[in-house]
Design brief:
By secondary structure, this protein is an alpha/beta fold. The protein has helices at 16-28, 39-48, 63-74, 93-102, 114-131, 161-174, 182-185, 192-201, 212-216, 218-231, 247-253, 255-258, 269-280; strands at residues 8-12, 32-36, 55-59, 84-88, 106-109, 150-155, 179-180, 203-210, 238-242, 263-264.
């Protein structure tokens, strides 16, 4: 029997970006992920998989879809007792109760914390194995206590916050990425300089919204300098997003930055988000 952290999990979500991010994070810990983009595809996979899955992580956009899916899974003899964890943006307590009564073992709100998710699914898999009379192997995942880390630090000029930076940060957070963004992260009384330095240090990537406003501001340029310093000698830490700016303008500002592959907001915020997710997962 595989260790708990090598368990096979079916992940169901219609959003390919979220499937990609969930697969990235859980596979890092050894989980075997089987993706499905719909309930129908998930049920087909359950009928054809040679080795049964030990947990199903399923998104639902409505109570009826969720209840029907749980019932359909548990009607399959092999999966009568497989744990199903619902992940959803639905917040109503009554909906959560109905889904749990239908047979889901847990419900987690989107956006969720991955350490919490991993701890929950590991515990459910351990319980499922005990129910089957199998001694679970491996140790439960423990959430790290201490320093916080983000996937992405967003550097931008204040003038671009409403049009680009905030929608970008919110969109990436909805895709389950952990974002350092001043409105999300800073609290009353925090030292601005110290908090930004910490965010730069503890973020895997830096998204830089380069615009005419950015090129004129001193503070965003300091953040960019910090990102350049962090990524040496690796050259893939900075992810440029061009906003209302030309290649010539960027080249005049920084030939090195102009040489980076970038995505433009002219392609739409959804495309920008998808390209960033492709880069970081």
């Amino acid at each position: 029997m595989r260790a708990l952290t090598a368990a096979k999990i079916l992940v169901v979500d219609s959003d390919p970006d979220i499937l990609r991010v969930v697969r990235f994070y859980l596979s890092k810990d050894g989980f075997m992920l089987v993706p499905a983009s719909s309930n129908k595809e998930a049920l087909e996979i359950l009928q054809t998989e040679k080795e049964p899955v030990e947990l199903i992580l399923c998104d639902t956009s409505s109570k009826s879809d969720g209840v029907n899916f749980v019932n359909s899974v548990h009607n399959v003899q092999t999966y009568r007792h497989v744990p199903i964890v619902i992940m959803s943006t639905l917040r109503e307590a009554a909906i959560k109760v109905d889904l749990l009564r239908a047979g889901a073992v847990d419900y987690i709100d989107k956006p969720f914390n991955f350490e919490e998710l991993k701890a929950r699914i590991t515990n459910h898999i351990a319980g499922y194995r005990r129910q089957l009379g199998i001694a679970p192997e491996g140790k439960l995942i423990r959430s790290p206590i201490g320093e916080e880390q983000w996937d992405i630090f967003i550097s931008h000029a204040y003038e671009d916050k409403e049009a680009i930076a905030r929608p970008l940060a919110e969109g990436l957070r909805q895709k389950q990425l952990k974002i350092w963004f001043d409105e999300f992260t800073l609290k009353l009384g925090d030292s601005l300089r110290r908090s930004i330095d910490y965010g730069l240090k503890k973020s895997r990537y830096g998204v830089v919204v380069i615009s005419p406003n950015f090129l004129k501001k001193e503070w965003p340029q300091r953040e960019l300098n910090g990102l350049f310093a962090k990524e040496a000698p690796v050259s893939n830490h900075i992810l440029p997003v061009w906003h209302n700016v030309t290649a010539n303008e960027i080249r005049e500002y920084s030939p090195i930055l102009a040489d980076r592959v970038a995505v433009s907001t002219d392609r739409g915020i959804a495309t920008v988000i998808s390209e960033i997710i492709r880069a970081v997962t």
